[in-house]
Amino acid sequence: MPDTLAALRAVVGPPHAWLAAAGDAVDGVAPRFVAAPGSAEEVASTLRLADEAGLTVVPRGAGTKLAWGAPPTRADIVVSTRRLDAVLEHAAGDLVVRAQAGVPLEALQAQLAPASQWLALDPPEPGASLGGVVATAASGPRRQRYGTARDLLIGVSVVLADGTLAKAGGKVVKNVAGYDLCKLFTGSFGTLGVIVETTFRLHPRPVGRCLVVADLDTSRALGEAVRSLLQTALVPSALELLATTESGAAGRLAVLFEGVPAGAVAQAQSAERLLARHGRSRIVQEPSLDAEWRVMTEAIGDGGVRLKLSGIVGRVPEMIDAVRAVARQHDLRFRIAGQAGLGVLGARLESPDEAVLSEVVPELRRRLGPRAHVVIRHAPPRVKRAVDVWGDPGDALPLMTRVKQRFDPHGTLSPGRFVGGL
Amino acid sequence: MAPAFDAHHPPDPHLIDDCVHCGFCLPACPTYLLWGEEMDSPRGRIHLMKQGHEGAPLSAVFARHFDLCLGCLGCVTACPSGVRYGQLLEATRQQVERRHPRSLADRGFRWALFSVLPYPGRLRWARAALRACARLGLLALARSRGLARLLPARASALLALLPEPRRPEPLATSVPAAGPERHRVALLSGCVQQAFFSHVNAATARVLAAEGCAVAVPARQGCCGALSLHAGREAEAQALARRLIEAFEAQEYDAVVVNSAGCGSAMKDYGRLLGDDPEYAARSARFAAKVRDLAEWLVEIGPRAPRRPLPISVAYHDACHLSHGQGIRRQPRELLGAIPELELREVSEAEICCGSAGIFNLVEPQAGRELGDRKAAHLLASGAQAIISANPGCLLQVRAGLERAVGSLPLFHLAEILDASIRGRPVPVSPSRATRV
Amino acid sequence: MARQLAAIVGQGGVVADLEARRTYESDALVRHRAIPGLVVLPETLEQVRAIVTLCHQRGVPFVARGAGTGLSAGALPVEDGVLIVLSRMRRILDVDVENQRVVVEPGVTNLAVTHAVGGQGYYYAPDPSSQVVCTVGGNVAENSGGAHCLKYGFTTHHVLGLEVVLPDGSLVHLGGEALDTPGYDLVGAFVGSEGTLGIATKITLRILRRPERVETLLASFESTDAAGEAVSAVIGAGIVPAAVEMMDALSIQATEAAVHPGYPAGAGAILIVELDGPAAEVAAQFEEVERLCRAVGCREIRIARDDVERALLWKGRRSAFAAMARVSPNYYVQDGVIPRTALPRVLRRIAELAAAAGLRVANVFHAGDGNLHPLVLYDAGEGETERAEELAGRILEICLEHGGSITGEHGVGADKKAAMPKMFLAADLHAMNLLRCAFDPAGLCNPGKLFPTPRLCGERPGPGRPHPLEQAGLGSVF
Fold first, then answer.
1. How far is C258 from chain A (nearest CA, A)?
2. How confident is the model at residue B150 (pLDDT cuts 50, 70, 90)?
3. What's the predicted TM-score (pTM) here?
């Protein structure tokens, strides 16, 4: 053990490697060391060291999503990207930015703001790093219009399990040279490599916004409202829903329009009239907009079981009803929020009786069937032990396993965190 | 085996080079739509020609893929580089016809077809025979399901495509203009047209007359040679062309009006067909410059006769040799659009050939049938009450396809519709009283 | 082998005659040719699986082909290998407008997808110029773009799920109808893999609602520099047009001669700018675009008043490549990408190089995203072919010098595989090879494409464990 620490310190510098403490646990699994390399080359050397020593590595950005996924089967070294915090290049004229993986998303947005540009990602987890957002494919309401990290990442540098530093993509949006490894690494949960540098395409910051909020009495009405909205030529930046134990059978929709101020207002008026046919709708302008928006999109809260549900848009009412039914059945409090226009929802269910929580996910999966996905984000350890966190990936698992084996033959990187125990 | 091309009019390598292999012609090609194979696409056929120039032999495979080309020229319309596929095909076809040995059965069948089709007199005998058979109920018997299946494919196709024999309508040798004479035109009476669609010729003459044209129908017209030309029977086509030019040279006309798309297309090409002939080169070019399709001519001179309403919905079927071959699409639609209360429906896949393509549906019955069925389905789907076409071959092919689709729609030539509108006669569109073509 | 294939697809599905096989020897890039050993045209998934399994068992390399309209020799056959043509798998299997999804077989043409949903006010966004003939399977392989990808992205942004026959004949389902399928984004890895990872047999596509309003203008400028300035101004104003196309003087001339779209005579450059979206937004932004163009000093602005005029504006741009055939006996279409802000510098460099080589280069490109299509004009009859190829290669190098890419749309295929090491380091290509080996360890699926030299899939790739073949000097591991 002292050898390893010394070796780590030799690579990253003495102050930047230490013995792990309680707070460094990865979803309940205690690592032995933490190292914070200061450059891509140091990350590479760290991984080479780990590989040769037969140790496992879990990458960590800001640690906001370490509890997502399954707990790693082993976590010897936590490699922190905290010190990779430089925004390397902002080509405003090209709407492209290149930044190291440890840069917090919020810090990046602040740097881009003076040029009236932004990275069109708005995941709710505060403090997240760019690398973490990419590795977990975290997303937020704006994905309705702009897509996710998968659609915005145009270049990436990754350190592979054996310490090789490899790049994919480039600095230009239009690029089909070679395999699109940017997509492969997005959402790979640190199991294929450690992301050290990211290049994103940017968008102009919208100038004006207008919000429409509608309260619907049933999930069916909500589904019809969403459907009729999607059939128009309106282009919302976000189409969020919220349903809680308190709201009973009802749910709320918030439709955000951004762009040229006159355009945003015109669209909002159209949407408001449309939604009035399904429920009670109203337009919200500044200065109340922020507050109302926050209510809809704030982080889903702590405790209980936090899930991600995804299904085809038409099944959103069914998904809401399934959560409601399970909650009622087991006397749970629930909160459902997410992208109603895309069929991607977050749900949190809590109960004083933890044992009951282990019933929730299998029950939901049974109700929703194989073509919808129920994935556990956060849950108490016993729940994660009792239930398959990710769900059945279908017949692609052997192929995914082969991909993992090629990129990480020794199982160095985040073993066990991902689908199928990868 | 001998190389594919000899020195007599091989497909021009310069024209072949115009092809950049982009593939835009593929979705326009009926055989590519049917089979999805490169060698039965224009791009693939051009490639075969190129192979021929590089020394590949005129093999059975080579010849087959050219036999399978409909010659519809849909690819010419689609090609962004302006490749003159029509010329390349004709050149290749005549090489194949001259130099590729066909089977006895194949030769026999083609001989039989070309012994009758280009001869108006013989066609009239055939018409009389058909009428007799019809009266004796033999035609219906032969067409009944069981018997048709017993016949070889080509014979059965021929049977399905036979026109309904009806009493011929006489056509005068000259028809004066109604009212002040604006133009003097000659009318091609055609072969199949005058034998089996004489009522179309009569209608054509009436329409022209109504529009102020004095119409002359030169006696002793023969065949224009289109079928022969498009089948690669070059010498035969040239002989027929010479005869036709002679027949029309007797007088001066402002135009030679043609109501059959295939014929008009071939006649406009006479300058090239007889370009090698010192005696006919200039004459054929002069003649060709006067050829006009009926729709083209009527729009060119402008309408004069008032149109009476025809409250029917029609679908206009573009004959390939009119739309692709002569670029005439707008004029027929303009003429139909000018008829009050007439509703014109567009048809899906309008650019794709109905499968008639000269004698294609006779020598390639399977493919002809598939294309005919496809076209019939689209025509029925348009919901129109009647189909208008400008080509006798198309009319026969489409009728056969509609019959197989167990649907039935009245079919008319454009001239008949215009005639009805000008004369204020109704057009029978109800199936039970339909004028069968 | 021919007999066994005929047993799978029937006699009519196998092409064995030499003349017929030769018609498949290239895609739209005719300078690369290879005659396939056999051509087979399956009609069902089961047939595709059986064919691939057979090839895998016999160790026979195979290449998949759609309509053969690619411009990078991606469908170039392997000599003596099998060419699997997907043109007969052309059914549209499911149209679900409400959930904005369409499922198609790979042989369906790009435009056919839009036609299937057009009646209901939807369309399929990626619109390569060859969309009337190119197939969705080919689009997936090449990650095809089109004029509107500045705003709408390319094929990879519109593929939700794939059914894939892997190179060993096994079947997998990637992605699906729901978003965010757990697991690696293998759909994203497969799209753009140029047919080297398997054959897609069902493709789930995302369709979009047609925008409320479309406005298109054509602006002519004294020079490409000025036009470029206008583009920068528009982007700088926070406007993301649906499309921004630029044509230089030579391409304007050629296009005018060929198709007569009525482009302004004597213009140094023209821009076609198209905005689409909600009416109020488009109206406001369009006014701004017009203002910015005038501020930069454009000579003339024409605004399309209806769809017919819009089609005419675009007609010239879409026919630009073919139009070159009218001003030059031969031309070489290059495809490279540069950061948009580097446009003036790069165009100047291209002009310098062209002058030095004694050749003309016409420039047509997607000005919005920096994707250039320099058209190198030459006369093969005058022996200029080699010089033209060299110039085209140098242009690619310039793109790389400015931080761009060797291909924005056409793909690497066989044509640009030698240029891959100029853009990527050995380590980068190694990472790509890891992916390929996971899908195709036997190296039978469209081999000879993408990577410069044959790469082995050693049991334990990476440094430290020399592969026996490497030790024998017969191969190298990257």
1. 29
2. confident
3. 0.93
